Amino acid sequence: MRPDTPAENVDHTAEAARLERTAGLYPEDAEALLLRAAAHLELAGDRPTATALYDRLLSSTDGLENPHLVRALKASNLWEYGHEAEARAIIEGVRVASPRDPAPWVIVAEALESHDELEAAHDTFTEAVRLLLTDVPQPPQPTHPLLFGRHRVRRMLGRSHDEWDALADTVHSLPITLDELHDPKRVWSLGSENPAELEAEITRLRAELGAYRAALSRPFPVAILHWPAPELSELLDAYPTLTSEYPSHDTHLATIESALRELSSSGTPNLGIVTGTVPSYEAFAASEGSSPGDATLLPQYATTLAARGRAVAWPPQQGAACWCGSGRAYGECHGGTV
Q1: How much is the pLDDT for 2?
Q2: Which of 26, 35, 105, 134 could cross-link to 128 by cystine, CB 3.0-4.6 Å?
Q3: SS3 117
Q4: Who's near 184: CB < 8 A, 6+ residues apart?
């Protein structure tokens, strides 16, 4: 269940509890699962318990994949229920740490923005954009919210366009321009008695809602299972009945790419790749009361990994490394095949 699902369609407290139980079963995925649980708790209005989950992650003896993201989410949540001083201190700590992941920057900047700290929000967005996008030929998709957020805050501050705003315009793909979406005067249109003005504002709001939904956590992808060469060799040695599924590692990689391209061309959205390991697969088979040699388990295993947040989006961003693990750019590896 996605955290952005409307409250009337989901019991957020129950969903958070389910995710906590799942995290107990799959400790290797606890970070992703507990972050989703905390999001549900925030939507349920139980912000103190959400903070407790963030603290649980931060105090974990196991290293976190993205501790700056957890701290940013904790700060945003704390500010929402009156712990402003602590939130500000955490936000400053995130800024000083200068993470290379755009997500923590977006969260702390939007927390400042939502509390009318527009100058601080602008400085935070700008700092992140300069850090992550200077001398980058094409902004990766995850950095787009930084450009859009900075553009939005600059419009509210009455700043003139600069080169980063121009870049934001180039990556914006909705029919309503960013200047229209971020016009501070739009709020007055909602009080207009002119039907044409109201209709125009509804169109803008719909476009903005589409952008907001696109920025939310996507549902887990339609995922294809990938075995690295050593794992595939170990798998086939232990379960030779799977050889018909995987004649060779090269064939396996080619099949993944062709299957994803076929799904993409048919209009299937949100595609991804999950990487399997033999111990994980054997544990999954045991939980299903079946033999790992049963090929029908493979797609179920892939779906389970994706639901646990293990999927990597396909295709990779321009210039990113290929999903196969070769170390080459995707466009020079599987992305360059026809």
Answers
A1: 42
A2: 105
A3: coil
A4: 155, 156
Comparing CA positions, the residue from 232, 205, 186 lying closest to residue 325 is 232
Residue 224 is given by DSSP the state E
- Tell me the whole-structure pTM to 2 decimals: 0.66
Q: What is the DSSP letter of 138?
A: S
Rounded to the nearest 10 degrees, how much is the dihedral formed by the CA atoms of 11, 36, 79, 159?
A: -110
Q: Pull the structure tokens for residue 125.
A: 């967005």
For 119, half-sphere exposure in the C-beta direction (CA atoms, 13 angstrom radius) is 0
Q: If 0-12 CB within 10 Å is exposed, 13-18 middle and 19+ buried, where does residue 140 land?
A: middle
Strand partners, 275: 226
Cβ-based neighbour number of residue 151 at 10 Å: 24
DSSP 5: S
* 153 Rama class: left (phi>0) / alpha (psi -120 to 50) / beta: alpha
Distance of CA 326 to the CA centre of its chain: 24
Q: What is the pLDDT of residue 50?
A: 95
DSSP code string of 170-192: HH--SSS-HHHHT-TTHHHHTT-
Which region, left, alpha or beta, applies to residue 135 given φ > 0 means left and ψ of -120 to 50 means alpha?
left
Among all chains, which residue has been given the structure tokens 């800024």? 95
Instruction: List the strands of the sheet with 222-226, edge to edge.
Output: 222-226, 271-275, 312-314
Which residues of the chain are modeled with pLDDT < 50?
Answer: 1-7, 187, 213-218, 338
Strand 222-226 relative to strand 271-275, pairing: parallel
